[in-house]
Amino acid sequence: MKATIASIVLRRLPSHLQFMEMPLKTKILEPQNINEATITTILNNGALEHHDNGGIYVTTYPINFWLDLDEKRKLIVIYTYWDAIPDLDELQILRFVNHANTQKIMLQFSYKAKLGRFYGHYTHPYNVGLLPPHVLTLCQKFSSIFEDVLHEGIADGVLQELPEGPDDDGDEADSDSTVH
Length: 180
Known about the structure:
The chain is an alpha+beta fold and 180 residues long. The chain has helices at 5-12, 36-45, 90-103, 132-155, and strands at residues 50-52, 56-58, 65-70, 75-83, 108-112, 117-125. The protein is built from four helices and six strands.
């Protein structure tokens, strides 16, 4: 009986480090089985609210975002945007974008002057498979990080204020507490 290199290496490790032999409790989805229906099922199983809005539009978290698949490159693409202050000095917003890119991990930020929008993007490869709980974590982290940067941009005077909540009459505003 031939021993594999991995089993020889594992036998030499102390027992508390032999985690590689334990099976995963979550099944890894094979890349060829990942499509929009798979992602929708993951979101449904995680009780994340979403609908079709030019792609899968996740509305569970404080900041709404799109989740798309680039099936050719085997990437999950998560993105959203926020409007910048109109007629803002472009250099000021670009400095803010550079600051956000150096201070936050995971997301990449950009600014499109023609539309006056500040964007947040994240791409996650699935060419070796995908763990469903990881997709749910990515969604939570994406919204949380973008929300932090959004508040910084509002405080710096480069991004528009959040929409108002309930108005003075106690009636609900046009939108709920989630925004994009």
